[in-house]
Amino acid sequence: MSLYRKKKSTSYTLWLTLLVAGIGFAVKSLLVHPVYVLLGNDVTHMNAWYTALLYYLIDGGLWDLAIIAVCYPASVHAVFHKGLKGGKGVILAFTLLTAGKFVLNYIMDVLTYSGLPRLDEFLTDLPMILIMMALELVPYALAVAVVAMAKTRYDRKAEMAAYQSELTETAAPAPVLPFGKLLSFRNPLQLASFVGVLAIFLSREVSYHVYQITLYANFGYTDGWLDMIVTLFSDVMISTLIYFAAILLLPHIHSREMENN
């Protein structure tokens, strides 16, 4: 037996994923990013505060991270609630929307800089697009895999406790909600959230240092130690905020999911 009763749908988590990721990625690709490109190429606006803000949202990845901060908990809850099979709709929705984001970004970039896209250029750029897409989906896959394994282990413990309780007094595993601590590796939802956030942090750091190595290899310099320290600190802070967003959202998602089933 599991903390969650078996339900027939993950309608709220699926709706949340479609709404946040679908609208979020579309608005970024179709509206915010083109505006950022226009402002960045205009000497009147390129040094303005709003252009700097758009830089952090787009190139700094904060826009995508805000979407991730909502969609990761939705997927973690869906998988723990229903298993991989029951949560496949949420997983597939976020994966396809993420893939669609990369395709849409590519099309908008081509339209902005060089006119209509050509098939031969797209095929040339396709390997890089797929690599970037895979790197973005790896943290998501890790979070989903961890919660799926944790759910299996949690359900096994619950079933064993229920069986043994008929013979002796055996305590069932602690409920996953409400959270008793800010961080607990024994709690499946918190463990999956932490692993996902850690993977996001590592991917951002690896990408940043690959860029610094490329700078040094091509031009003989990097952005310097201060920039590296500031980037490390900001990545730690962003990752921490995403984790706290997850543990705040998960109880809300659970209550809404129970209301809708």
For the structure shown, list the relevant keywords.
about 260 residues, mainly alpha, globular
Please outline the helices and strands.
Layout: H1 11-40, H2 49-58, H3 62-86, H4 88-113, H5 119-165, H6 188-219, H7 225-260
Care to describe what's here?
It is a single chain. The chain has 261 residues and is mostly helical. It is 79% helix and 0% strand. The protein has seven helices and no strands. The protein is globular and about 70 Å long. Mean pLDDT is 87; it is low at 1-10.
**What's the story with the biggest beta sheet?**
none
Q: Unreliable runs, pLDDT <50, ≥5 residues?
A: 1-10
| DSSP strand content | under 5%
Multimeric status of the protein: single chain
Principal-axis shape? globular
Distance between the termini: 18 Å
**Continuous helix count:** 7
Number of strands: 0
Mean pLDDT across every amino acid position: 87
Order of helices and strands: HHHHHHH
Radius of gyration: 21 Å
Give the structure's gist in a few sentences.
By secondary structure, this protein is mostly helical.
